[in-house]
Amino acid sequence: MSSRRGLTLGLLVVVAILSYVDRQVFTLFQDDIKAELGLDDGQLGLLTGIAFAAFYALAAFPIARYADRGDRRLVIAVCVSIWSAATALSAFAHSFVQMLLARIGLAAAEAGAGPAGMSLLTDIFPKDRRTTIISIMLAANAVGLSGGLALAGWLSQWYDWRTVFLIVGLPGIAVGLLVYLLAAEPRRRGVVEPVPVQQTSLGEVLRTMASNASLRWVGLLLCMVPLTGFAFILWGASFFQRVHGMDKTETGFWLGGAMAAGLVIGNLVAGWVSDRYGQAKPGFNGWFAGIGLLISFPFGVGFALAGNAYVALACFVVVKFMMTLHLGPIIALCFAQVPVQMRAMMSATINMFIGLAGVGLGGTVAGYLSKAFAPGYGELSLQPSLAILSCCLLVGGIAAIMAGRTARPIEE
Fold it and tell me: What does the UniProt keyword field contain (predicted)?
């Protein structure tokens, strides 16, 4: 069983990496896509932002409801195969509408794999390793974010954006097949009792959050922090190319490395600290997350306004590290306050908040702010745009501390 758990974790780490590699290829090439398809920053913001996030949120809940009672490895296998095919089909887009349809397919499929995978892993691993496992998966997302940029930058030396979409998209179909054939699923093999057939609805999760002071503060946090985090991620490549004159290879290497340093280390540190100190007192997780977010604020402003590319990169590493300390502990704090049969839907709800606030509003608002500042700032218009969005980190930090203060965990 131990080796099967390890294999399952390894496969789901690969799935998480692929999910963000497919997203990041678009961000590195978005200026080329903008020029070839005749788009503006507002339309780019829609493609990376609200259009992606809306369908991500809509698809997440019906899939998560099935995952709370059905075959989770089947859900994950189908989802990764569909989003990989959608990534490959992006190579054939010749208009805004065609690219939009490909992005919608990518978003809808990616929405299902995360909650199903988190539910499966928290089922097959013991409670005392839960936050570490969650943080490993979040670190895998970070590897995908950074590795996707580095891979796309390296491939850009030889191939155009259309060919790169094909190269990164097609292998995911094989990964989906491996998940279905090799991953553990206790429900299928009768190793543990299945989750009751009673289904948890989105309305029930939202009512649970509304009736719990700690989870209300978590909701505010999940609306604020992703605005900044995803604005930096989705527009970071364009920021370094426009503001600091980097080419795609340099951007992929330096920005990808900065993301890896901040996000991967941050997630692993968060998991270790939370499991060590937050196990007996889950409220500790809120304090730990909040302090990290408050420290990240000045470095977020420094990243946006720095006149030197390497100073901006150094600030980016710090802000991503400090921001990343919040998510694993906050997810664990949420899971400690809801019953086990609600966890996949809770995970999907958290993803909905992150998707709509971060990918949706963060990417879109940053694009339209950049468009608004363009007459006065020209190619530097992303600087004031990202500096303004950094202020959301202050609100998120206060919300995290309050979530920890008011936490009321339930017994397993």
Answer: Membrane, Transmembrane, Transmembrane helix, Transport
In Å, what is the CA distance from 410 to each residue of 205, 220, 275? 15, 22, 17
* Higher pLDDT among residues 78 and 50, named by residue: 78
60 exposed, middle or buried (CB, 10 Å; 0-12, 13-18, 19+)?
buried
Structure tokens at 1: 């069983």
- Within a 10 A sphere around the Cβ of 378, how many other Cβ atoms? 9
Neighbouring CB atoms inside 10 A of 284's CB total 19
3-class secondary structure, 229: helix
Which amino acid, residue 101? L
pLDDT of 369 > 80? The answer is yes
Q: Is 26 helix (H, G, I), strand (E, B) or coil?
A: helix
Query: Whole-angstrom Cα distance, residue 397 to residue 294?
Result: 5
- Written as six digits, the tokens of 3 are 């080796």
User: Is 324 in contact with 266 (CB distance < 8 Å)?
Assistant: yes
316 band by pLDDT with thresholds 50, 70 and 90: very high
Domain spans of the chain, in order of start:
2-405
Residue 194 has pLDDT above 60, yes or no: no
Distance CA(36)–CA(119), nearest Å, equals 41
Closest CA to 162 of 106, 252, 80, 93: 93
- The token duo for 394 is 């202050």
Supply the angle between the helices 171-182 and 72-89 in degrees, to the nearest 10: 180
3-state DSSP helix/strand/coil percent for the chain, to nearest 5? 85, 0, 15
pLDDT at 189: 52
C-alpha 174: how far from chain center = 23
Chain centroid to Cα 83, Å, comes to 15
**How many whole angstroms separate alpha carbon 250 and alpha carbon 245?**
10
The pLDDT of residue 193 is 46
pTM for this predicted structure: 0.69
Nearest to 304 by CA among 295, 315, 293: 315
